[in-house]
């Protein structure tokens, strides 16, 4: 049976030509047009999902990936997995460099070399990332009476999912990799409702109970053994501007939580304030000034 090509004549959709012309007009197109350097492809969300899946299997063998891997053959499977991660991540990092290219890289080969170096430098941090995540899992088990084991936290808890993404994104952020860390963070944000900027520095044994609606800003510093509950915001109070009116980027503008701080549900802490060691911040409070160590802050009262 012969098939005829379907054609839509312009006269049947008289407004289409006008829409095309307006969308292609420089006054509209110039605001959104993006042309990656050297014609490179955009970073791939699907490839990053695969990389994260492979990293989860490398960090937590048996929980993710193939559950049939045995300890005696672990080295073989891990080496093959890490080789794939290295190559795939290097490609995504290269695309990230091209996405935000500032003409620092003189050639495609130079960009590829820098990407490969960044990918290997990241892999070198995996043992430390695993150590931190194991501490996070233990903190979840010890901090939640409903948890039956650290393994349950690893496999089920949104806090562990978001921290897996954050520890990885933060390492890449520290290597000055553009775009890719934010994509990794947003993958966890969309799934858990927890928004952590990859630049935030988070200490050992960190736990977010329940988690939905938590926001942790770029320049936050969180100490060891801190715990947050759902709806907590660690944000900026104000946004300094440059003489031309643009926002000043990169300055410290988010809270510092010292060790062993607990922040209960719905609390909002804004600006470069310090919450002292061992302080407890009650639910739904609004804080814009320093809190001394050991203090307990609630809507009714504040005690030292």
Summarize the structure.
By secondary structure, the chain is of the alpha/beta class. It folds into 2 domains: 39-192, serine acetyltransferase, domain 1 (Orthogonal Bundle), CATH 1.10.3130; 200-241 and 249-304, 3 Solenoid (UDP N-Acetylglucosamine Acyltransferase, domain 1).
Summary keywords:
304 residues; alpha/beta; serine acetyltransferase, domain 1; UDP N-Acetylglucosamine Acyltransferase, domain 1; 2 domains; six-stranded mixed beta sheet; five-stranded parallel beta sheet; 11% strand; globular
Can you describe what's shown?
This protein has 304 residues and is α/β, with parallel strands linked by helices. The chain folds into 2 domains: 39-192, serine acetyltransferase, domain 1 (Orthogonal Bundle); 200-241 and 249-304, UDP N-Acetylglucosamine Acyltransferase, domain 1 (3 Solenoid), CATH 2.160.10.10. Helix content is 41%, strand content 11%. The chain contains 9 helices and 15 strands. The strands form 3 sheets. The chain has a 6-stranded mixed sheet. A 5-stranded parallel sheet has the order 1-4-7-10-13. It is globular. 32% of the residues are buried.
Share of β-strand residues: 5-15%
Low-confidence stretches: none
Overall geometry: globular
Termini, distance in Å? 85 Å
What is the total number of structural domains? Answer: 2
Q: Please state the structural category.
A: alpha/beta
Query: What is the H/E order?
Result: HHHHHHHHHEEEEEEEEEEEEEEE
CATH architecture group name of the largest domain: Orthogonal Bundle
CATH level-3 fold name of the largest domain: serine acetyltransferase, domain 1
Largest sheet: 6 strands, mixed
CATH class placement of the largest domain: Mainly Alpha
Counting copies of identical and different chains, the oligomeric state is: single chain
């Amino acid at each position: 049976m012969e098939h005829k090509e379907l054609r839509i004549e312009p006269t049947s959709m008289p407004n289409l030509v006008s829409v095309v012309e307006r969308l292609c007009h420089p006054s509209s197109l110039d605001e959104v047009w993006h042309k990656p350097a050297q014609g490179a492809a955009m970073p791939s969300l699907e490839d990053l999902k695969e990389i994260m899946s492979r990293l989860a299997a490398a960090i937590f063998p048996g929980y993710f990936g193939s559950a049939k891997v045995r300890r005696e053959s672990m080295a073989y499977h891990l080496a093959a997995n890490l080789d794939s991660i290295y190559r795939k991540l290097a490609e995504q990092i290269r695309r990230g460099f091209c996405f935000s290219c500032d003409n620092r890289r003189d050639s495609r080969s130079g960009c590829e070399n820098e990407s490969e170096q960044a990918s290997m430098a990241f892999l070198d941090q995996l043992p430390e990332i695993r150590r931190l995540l194991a501490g996070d899992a233990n903190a979840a088990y010890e901090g939640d009476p409903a948890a039956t084991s650290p393994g349950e936290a690893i496999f089920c808890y949104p806090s562990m999912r978001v921290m897996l993404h954050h520890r990885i994104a933060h390492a890449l952020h520290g290597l000055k990799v553009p775009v890719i860390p934010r994509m990794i963070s947003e993958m966890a944000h969309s799934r858990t409702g927890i928004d952590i900027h990859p630049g935030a520095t988070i200490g050992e044994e960190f736990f977010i109970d329940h988690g939905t609606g938590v926001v942790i800003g770029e320049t936050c510093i969180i100490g060891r053994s801190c715990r947050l509950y759902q709806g907590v915001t660690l944000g900026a109070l104000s946004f300094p501007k440059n003489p031309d009116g643009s926002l000043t980027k990169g300055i410290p503008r988010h809270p510092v939580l010292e060790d062993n701080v607990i922040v209960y549900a719905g609390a909002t802490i804004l600006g470069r304030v310090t919450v002292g060691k061992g302080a407890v911040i009650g639910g739904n409070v609004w804080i814009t000034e320093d809190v001394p160590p050991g203090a307990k802050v609630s809507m009714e009262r504040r005690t030292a």
